[in-house]
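Dear Dr. H.,

I hope your travels went smoothly. While you were away I took the liberty of generating a structure for the chain from your last submission, since the lab meeting agenda had it listed for discussion. I wanted you to have the full record in hand beforehand rather than looking at slides cold. The sequence, exactly as received, is reproduced here:
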Amino acid sequence: MNRRAFSIAPALVFLMAGCATHHQRYDWGSYDPSLYDYYKSPAKVAELSESLAAIIEEASSNHATVPPGIYAEYGYLQMQQGKNLAAIDLFKQEETRWPESKVFMDRMIKVASTSAAGASPQSSSP
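The corresponding predicted structure, in token form, is as follows:
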């Protein structure tokens, strides 16, 4: 009887460990639905941009880690809107927090810098 209890106990512990809940490592906020909506209708870029900004703000206020790629994607949206300096800052943040993105982020920084340097300030015409 004692031997049987020793053989059942590890199996029981193993089965109970499978029932443990797993917590998400990152808070993705409403990223999935807003990205899906953006893919369906690219005119919804403002909603995606707001969603990415909210994810970053929420993580910052909770001292949590921003999920990988969020800074980069938000930076890309900023660059598409002509806000290259903001885009460069976001690309640098992505590179700092996710060093494996360094090669890609360096390239995006170069593209955003070139675009920013090549753009002439808009003059107001009378």
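Two observations you may find useful: Residues 28-117 form a domain with the Serine Threonine Protein Phosphatase 5, Tetratricopeptide repeat fold (CATH 1.25.40). The helical segments are 2-17, 31-40, 45-61, 70-80, 84-97, 102-118.

With kind regards,
E. W.
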